[in-house]
Amino acid sequence: MFDSLLDMFSYAFLVRALIVGLLVSLCASLLGVSLVLKRYSMIGDGLSHVGFGTLAIATVLNVAPLALSIPVVVLAAFLLLRISENGKIKGDAAIAMISAGSLAVGVMVISVTTGINTDINNYLFGSILAMSKEDVTLSIALAVVVLGLYALFYNKIFAVTFDEGFAKATGVRTGLYNMLVAFLTAITIVLGMRMMGALLISSLIIFPALTSMRICKKFKTVTICSAVVAVASFVVGMVISYTQSTPTGASVVIVNIVAFVLFWALGYVWRRVLKGKLGRSVATRQEDDA
User: CB of 122 within 8 A of CB of 57?
Assistant: First the structure.
């Protein structure tokens, strides 16, 4: 096993994929806590479909994929946020509309021009081979920006996540920080699509947050636990993908599912133990009172 890991890290493209994957997983897990608590977790799925449509157009026009997809997906994130806040269409319906529409545009553009090709399939299902050195450099730089902004505005993000109404009443510019979360999420989605694919990238946002919530109850502990689960799941998924020759994105998702089940079982057992201790404590007090 150790020899296999050494052999794995002897490939430069795997090392690059691991670095980018760890950074993207970390970004997605941190933002995922806020998105899940605000019941807006499916924004990742919607934005990934927007990214797929944009990447399809970029491929046809022979334009740098990330250079075109990042601003478009960011604009889509702001549009989703604006529609859900001020429009008559609720957030989940807006996501469904934009998601289906973007996917249809991408498929239509491909079908009437070059047809389905390997490069587009890599964007749809993910491939670590799809990442060039330029993509890696840009991804690392943008991931550092996302992490830096999240750390800088952590308290404000917590405020709009925990109680947006109270935060607004205390003078916090909730609209601005909601847009910041949408902006950071859009960048993270685009960066992760190359490796996880448009159909699986939302799992990096949803699973770590839900997994950590099975045991942790405070926002800070949930955030930390989510980051640890995301990073560990990605590393294990990468190793499984390399040793068993399985798709990277699917392997990472399967590991996340296993982690969720384990945390759910641990949380269930822990609650039962606490309930038993509480029951015995109440019974003891009643006996003492008698």
Answer: no
Predicted structure pTM score = 0.83
> Helix-strand-coil percent breakdown of the chain, rounded to 5?
85, 0, 15
Cβ within 8 Å of residue 9, ≥6 positions away:
15, 18
pLDDT digits (tens, 9 = 90+) for 175-213: 888 888 888 988 888 888 777 877 788 888 889 999 999
Quick one: which of 260, 283, 176, 160 has its CA closest to 212?
Answer: 260
State how far Cα 159 lies from the chain centre: 20
Neighbours of 105 (CB within 10 A): 17
- pLDDT at position 66: 75
CA separation for the pair 280, 277 (Å, rounded): 5
Q: Look up residue 155 and give its DSSP letter.
A: H
CB 255 within 8 A of CB 233: yes
The alpha carbons of the chain give a radius of gyration, in whole angstroms, of 21
The answer to whether the CB of 229 falls within 8 A of the CB of 30 is no
Tokens of 170: 């205390």
